[in-house]
Structure formats: structure tokens, C-alpha cells
């Protein structure tokens, strides 16, 4: 009998404890202000953690949107245009002057009209193409046709002087003219393959715009 009474007493104590816990839980749900401070602090910490998580998620989403902005992508992808380090007219104008002067000088000493006509024709054409290239470059436009024209004239001069040198075997002036024409042909080829003349300074993008 004593054993049954002890078992009954333990069961009643367990039921009462469970009832007390349920009552406290109901009070905490109905009246949050009467809850235990530790439980409230845990709830507050969980709420703060949730807000921080939401803030981090919103920041991440905003950052991803900013990264996927097409305007920013275009600015980052945009790169300066390829161009040569030196302009064609920097050497083209002196080269045309040399060819024109050599034609006049050769006519004075040799009295050969062919030398005068060749010097005036090729030298004048080179000077004209170089001058037009300079004017077009100042306007910010492409001067590629004028560069190709100068390259063609340099190739013709190289062929003519090389043929004359092969017949006469004279280093000066024919050999020198052939060497100068070959050097200028290489220079014009470099300018064309590099993308043309570099743009004027007023048309180049500023460093601040490029850094964006």
C-alpha cells in the first residue's frame, strides 16, 4: 500500500509541475512583459539578429544590382582605343620636304627634268597628304586614308630608288633615298597596324572618367 501511495504521489507531482510549466508558457504568450528577463533578452537578440540578417541580405542584393548595372558595366569594359605612339605627319612632312628638296637639288646639278618632275610630284604629294592628315587629326577624325596614301608613295619611291641603285651602284644619293623610303614605309606600316594616330588631348577621356 505504501508503495502505491508513493507512486501516486510522484505522478501527481509530475502532473503539477507540467501544469505549472504550461501555465507559465501561457502567461508568457499572453503577457510578454511578465516573462522572464532572460527569455526576453533571447527574443530581443533573435529579433536583432533577424534585422541584421535582413540588412545584410538587402545590402547584398543592392550590391549585386549595382554590379549588374549596364551603365557601370559599359564604363568598366570601355578601354582606350589602340593607337600609335607618334603621328604620321611628324615624319611625313619632313619626308615630303626631303623628297621635294632632293628633286630641286638634283635638277640644279644634273639639269635633268625627270629628276625635277619626280621630286616635285612625289614630294608635293607627300607634303599635301601629311598636311591634310594633320588637319583631319585636329578635327578628331580618322586620317587613315592619308596615311595609306603616304605609304603607297613611299613604296613607289623605294622601288624606283632601288632600281636606280641596282643599275648605278651609287650609295649617294640613290642608296640613301632608298634607305629613307624603306624606313618611312616601315613607319607608315607601324602606324596603320597600331590603329592610326593617337587622338588629340582634348578628345582623350580624363583619368577620372576612366576610373569610374
TrEMBL record:
Molecular function via GO: fatty acid transmembrane transporter activity
UniProtKB keywords: Membrane, Transmembrane, Transmembrane helix
Transmembrane helix as UniProt keyword: yes
Xref: InterPro entries: TMEM14, TMEM14_sf
One Gene Ontology CC term in the entry: chloroplast inner membrane
Gene3D superfamilies for this protein: Transmembrane protein 14-like
Domain of life from the UniProt record: Eukaryota
Transmembrane segments: 89-109, 115-134, 146-165, 171-193
Cellular localization per UniProt: Membrane
Principal subcellular localisation of the protein: membrane
Keyword Transmembrane helix: yes
Family the UniProt entry places it in: Belongs to the TMEM14 family.
PANTHER family: PROTEIN FATTY ACID EXPORT 1, CHLOROPLASTIC, TRANSMEMBRANE PROTEIN 14, 15
Name assigned to this protein: Protein FATTY ACID EXPORT 1
